[in-house]
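Quick one, C-alpha cells below. Sequence please?
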C-alpha cells in the first residue's frame, strides 16, 4: 500500500467554457443557496468580443467562482484565457482528449459546457501547461523565427528548381548557391549576362578552383522568364532574412532577464544559444510545474508510452507526439552532441550501435531534457560533463572483460584469458 496524491474534495464554485470562434458557452456550478449538499448550475452564452468577455468575467466574479476551465480549442481559447487570467481567476486549460463525452451521449455546446463543469468540479482533469506572459511572448517570437527559417528554406529550394528548369546546374558545383559567388552569378543572370565564361569569372576564393566545371554548369537556357521569377525569389529570400534579423533583435531584448540561464544551458553539448532560447520559450524557467525530470520528459513526449492489458504489452511503446518545436530543437541538439567526445556523444553511439540512430536521438534528447530540468530547478548548479569514459568507469571487472571479449570476437579473434602473475 502507498499513499497517492489524489484530492477527493470538490471545487465548490467552478465554471467551464465551451469556446467557439464567435461564441462562448459558460456553465457555472455553485452550492445551492438553501439546500445543503445540493448544487445549482446556470448557463449563459457570451460573444467572444473583448467587451463581452469582460462582462462574463464580472458575472463570474459576482458568483465568487474560483476556478474556470476551458478546452484548448484551436487558438480560440486565448482571448477568454487572457481576460480571465488578468481578472485574477484560477484558469485551467485542459486537453480536449481528457474530457470527451461518453459514447452515446448527445452533444451540444451547452451539454459540452455542463459535462466539462461536472468533470472539473470533481477534479478529474489536469491542467495543461500555459507559461506566464513573458515566456509566452518569447515563445511567439522563437516559434515565428522557426517558421521564417522554414519558409526561407522553401524559397531557396524554389530557386534551385528554377535554375534546374533553365538548365543551369550551379548547385552541382557549388555547395551553397546562396554564397557570395552564387549570388553574384544569379544577379548577373537577372541583369542579362549569359556568357558562361563571364559568369564563371565571378567565382571567389575556393570556388575559383572549379572554373572549368562552373563554365560547363552555367551553360543553360536561362531566359527572361527565368530572370523575372529569379528576381522575385531572391527578393523574397532577402526580405525573410531581414525579418529573421528583426525577430532576433526582439528575442535578444526579451531574453535579457534569462541571460544567465541561457549561458548555463549553452554548456550542454549540442545546445547553442539559439537552442537554449527555444527551450526556455517552450518549458519556461519555473520547474515547480514539473515536480521531477520525469514529469517534464513525459510532458514533452520523450518517455515511452505504456499500453498494457492482462499482463501483456499491447502495441508499441512509442513516445507519441508532443511539442514539435521542443522536439525539433532537442533532436538537433542530440545530433550535435553525437559528434562530440562527451558523455552524451558516447551515449548516442552506444545506443545507435544496439538499437539504431532514431532511438538513439530520442534517448539522448531525453537525457538533454533531464539535464535542462536539473539546471532550471536548481539555479545555483552548473553543467559538468561526465566524460566519454563514464560507462567504462562504472562497469564492473567481469562485465568489462565480457565486453572486450565480445568486441574481439566481432573482429574475428579467438580469446584466451590468462591472469597476470
Amino acid at each position: 500500500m502507498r499513499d497517492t496524491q489524489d484530492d477527493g474534495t470538490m471545487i465548490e464554485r467552478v465554471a467551464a467554457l465551451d469556446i467557439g470562434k464567435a461564441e462562448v458557452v459558460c456553465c457555472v456550478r455553485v452550492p445551492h443557496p438553501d439546500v445543503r449538499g445540493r448544487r445549482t448550475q446556470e448557463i449563459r452564452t457570451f460573444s467572444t468580443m473583448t467587451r463581452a468577455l469582460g462582462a462574463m468575467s464580472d458575472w463570474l466574479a459576482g458568483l465568487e467562482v474560483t476556478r474556470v476551465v476551458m478546452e484548448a480549442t484551436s487558438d480560440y481559447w486565448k482571448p477568454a484565457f487572457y481576460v480571465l487570467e488578468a481578472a485574477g481567476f484560477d484558469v485551467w486549460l485542459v486537453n480536449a482528449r481528457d474530457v470527451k463525452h461518453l459514447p452515446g451521449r448527445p452533444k451540444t455546446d451547452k451539454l459540452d459546457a455542463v459535462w466539462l463543469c461536472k468533470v472539473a468540479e470533481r477534479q478529474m482533469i489536469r491542467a495543461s501547461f500555459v507559461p506566464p506572459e513573458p515566456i509566452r511572448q518569447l515563445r511567439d517570437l522563437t516559434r515565428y523565427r522557426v517558421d521564417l527559417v522554414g519558409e526561407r528554406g522553401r524559397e531557396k529550394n524554389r530557386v534551385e528548381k528554377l535554375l534546374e528548369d533553365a538548365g543551369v546546374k550551379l548547385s552541382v558545383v557549388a555547395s551553397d548557391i546562396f554564397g557570395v559567388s552564387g549570388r553574384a552569378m544569379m544577379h548577373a543572370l537577372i541583369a542579362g549576362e549569359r556568357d558562361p565564361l563571364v559568369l564563371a569569372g565571378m567565382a571567389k576564393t575556393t570556388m575559383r578552383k572549379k572554373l572549368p566545371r562552373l563554365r560547363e554548369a552555367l551553360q543553360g537556357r536561362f531566359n527572361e522568364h527565368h530572370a523575372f521569377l529569379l528576381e522575385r525569389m531572391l527578393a523574397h529570400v532577402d526580405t525573410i532574412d531581414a525579418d529573421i534579423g528583426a525577430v532576433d533583435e526582439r528575442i535578444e531584448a526579451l531574453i535579457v532577464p534569462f541571460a544567465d540561464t541561457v549561458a548555463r544551458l549553452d554548456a550542454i553539448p549540442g545546445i547553442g544559444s539559439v537552442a537554449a532560447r527555444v527551450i526556455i520559450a517552450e518549458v519556461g524557467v519555473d520547474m515547480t510545474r514539473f515536480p521531477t525530470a520525469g514529469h517534464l520528459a513525459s510532458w514533452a513526449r520523450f518517455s515511452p508510452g505504456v499500453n498494457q492489458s492482462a499482463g501483456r504489452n499491447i502495441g508499441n511503446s512509442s513516445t507519441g507526439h508532443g511539442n514539435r518545436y521542443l522536439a525539433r530543437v532537442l533532436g538537433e541538439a542530440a545530433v550535435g552532441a553525437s559528434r562530440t567526445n562527451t558523455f552524451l556523444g558516447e551515449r548516442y553511439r552506444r545506443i545507435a550501435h544496439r538499437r539504431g540512430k532514431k532511438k538513439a536521438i530520442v534517448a539522448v534528447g531525453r537525457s538533454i531534457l533531464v539535464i535542462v530540468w536539473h539546471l532550471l530547478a536548481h539555479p545555483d548548479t552548473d553543467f559538468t560533463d561526465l566524460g566519454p569514459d563514464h560507462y567504462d568507469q562504472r562497469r564492473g571487472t567481469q562485465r568489462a572483460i565480457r565486453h572486450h571479449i565480445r568486441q574481439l570476437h566481432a573482429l574475428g579473434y579467438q580469446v584466451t584469458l590468462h591472469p597476470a602473475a
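Residues 1-6 have pLDDT under 50 and may be disordered. The chain has three domains: 14-121, 135-254, 257-306+316-421.
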